[in-house]
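Fold it.
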Amino acid sequence: MNVLKKLLVNDKTFYKKVLTLATPIALQSMIAIGVNMLDTIMVGSLGEAELSATSLANSFISIYHIFCMGIGMGASVLISRYWGMKSSEPERASISLKKTICIMLRIALILATIFALITLFFPGTIMRTYTPDENIISLGIVYFRYSIVTYFFLGLSLVCTIALRSVGQVKLPLYVSIGAFSINLIANYALIFGKFGFPEMGVAGAALATLISRIFETTIICGYLLFKDNKICFRVKNLFMKTGDLFAEYVRISIPVLVSDAILAFGNNAVAMVIGRLGQTFVAANAITSVTQQVSSVVIQGVSQSGAIVTGQTLGEGDKEKTMDQGYGFLGLGILLGIIACLTIILISPFVIKSYNVTTETAATARQLMNAISIIMLFQATNSIMTKGVLRGGGDTKILMVADNLFLWILSIPLGIVAGFVFHLSPFWIYVCLKFDQISKAVWCVLRLQSGKWIKKIKTV
């Protein structure tokens, strides 16, 4: 009974704040996933080779996406804490806010340049790290050719969105995502299949449609932050401000988040490399199931990001006891949402698999993967909300970086390789082994929460 009481926060304003922040974030995530699902279904109608090529090419692009999430969420730890301090130290908090955003934008642009150059000069090499199939490789190279510039727009829109969310501005990014989804839907239909007088471009059309929607998204989000926003008041001139006095603190808090998420990105790609060598059937089945997993976890992502924001702002106000109570409240939400996600996957998986034009063998493999994912989500919900939300919001970024390393590289990936290539287990058990870090981390993060050692001090300029 005492444990249950801890998981339920006796504060209606807490749940109201979480709901206010998490709902638009979750809806925006749903729209983003809708764009990916749209690409997958439309490209999947062209054939399994096209579906596999775009899926594997996007596995590399997702590395940059996760890097940017690391940059943005690392900065969010600082931004939300400084925002909570505005009532007590308004001038110092405001300057620290602007410098944090400046550093964040500079790093995002540098990384975009690096990824664009790698994609430009080594597209074939990238694809060969995922699959030996020359047909899939050639189609992936075509997809990459139209994705080079996308990095810049993707990075800027993503980190600016996270900055706005950190100070409670969650509605504008949602509205912009709705517009981007609509544009992507029309552009996909026109460019993939050659409608409305446009040439039939296949996988290239999918990449170009994504670029067009990203340009729209970046123009609105960055335009608002730089010219209209009156909360942060960050302007173009602030891009050139000196940030040396805050850089060390940014590195201390944010870089472990970036490294942690980068490790996750490379780990996911190592998983994709294992899957890519298990055959085209497994690759296509995984492409189908990954979208379903994303759909089932959108609310979890929203609560996770709201967890980092709420925790940071409460600590900025100086209330550690309230922060601990809220931490247990988020743990309770994680357990509940894990159960809901599991049931959602079980219910929708048959309909999702039937919507794809794939072989009977691929459909059977997809069903096994869906069953595995439903179990994994029971644990992933809790560890995502705690590690990417509460513990990260408390500034516990270095320990999280170590934990991500240990559980992913020492446990999950070796288990997956052994399961797939040594024991040749069924797709269900291969996937469970590849994602076993989600289970082990869920147990660890509860113990970390109880210790209270995750609450760290953060400096200002």
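Residues 106 and 239 are 8 Å apart (CA to CA).
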